[in-house]
Write a structure and sequence with these properties.
This protein is mostly beta strands. It has a single domain, classed as Immunoglobulin-like (Sandwich). 6% of the residues lie in helices and 40% in strands. Strands 1, 2, 3, 4, 5, 6, 7, 8, 9, 10, 11, 12 and 13 form a 13-stranded mixed sheet that branches.
Length: 200
């Protein structure tokens, strides 16, 4: 099982770089995608970064099918038992997001509107390796506990999580994950394949 250390820090530059490069299915190679995660005293922060010059971003409706656009996604369960529920945060470069919580990928899940809490920000840039788009978001601990009262964010606690890149419409179809997903075809709603985010 993959593990990622979420450092207690105030800057993403202090964080480990996670690579979203597991892509066992028969689709084109996804664009280079990576993430960083840090924690503060009262929130978890995620930075998602994809090296695409012109990402597809057609969906502009909250909780729309942003996974059809060029999309980066962060799925996590703040409890040790993923069957109690997990969050899925999916976002395009607009940024338009979908944010759900529930115990499975079916009717048990529901949308969450959380603009103030998530504080989603998009950025475009270029470095020595190419042009990219980047998303940052925050997940305050007290906000998460409204939905998952058993969440533990103490030092050494483990969050089960996976990070993904996908795209379907008006682009070469592609799928990739940080932690390997052992299914015959792409299916990100598989908490049994989540890796571990270990909190400092």
């Amino acid at each position: 099982m993959k593990r990622y250390t979420v450092k207690l820090a105030d800057d993403f530059e202090q964080a480990e770089v996670g690579r979203i490069e597991e892509s066992p299915w028969d689709y084109v190679k996804p664009p280079r995608t990576e993430f960083r995660a840090i924690r503060g005293e009262d929130a978890l922060f995620i930075q998602l970064k994809c090296y695409e010059e012109d990402p597809v971003a057609r969906v502009g409706c909250r909780h729309g099918h942003v996974c059809n656009d060029s999309c980066m996604e962060f799925f996590f369960s703040p409890c040790a038992d993923c069957s109690l529920g997990y969050f899925n945060f999916e976002v395009n470069s607009n940024p338009t997001y979908l944010f759900d919580y529930g115990p499975d990928s079916g009717d048990g899940r529901f949308h969450i509107d959380a603009d103030e809490e998530l504080n989603v920000k998009a950025e475009r840039g270029e470095d020595e390796t190419g042009k990219y788009w980047q998303i940052t978001a925050s997940f305050p601990f007290e906000f998460i506990k409204r939905y998952a009262p058993g969440a533990d964010f103490s030092h050494g606690a483990v969050i089960r999580a996976n990070v993904y890149k996908c795209g379907k419409t008006e682009q070469p179809e592609h799928y990739a994950s940080w932690s390997p997903v052992g299914t015959p075809g792409p299916n990100f709603h598989m908490p049994e394949f989540f890796g571990e985010f270990v909190l400092e």
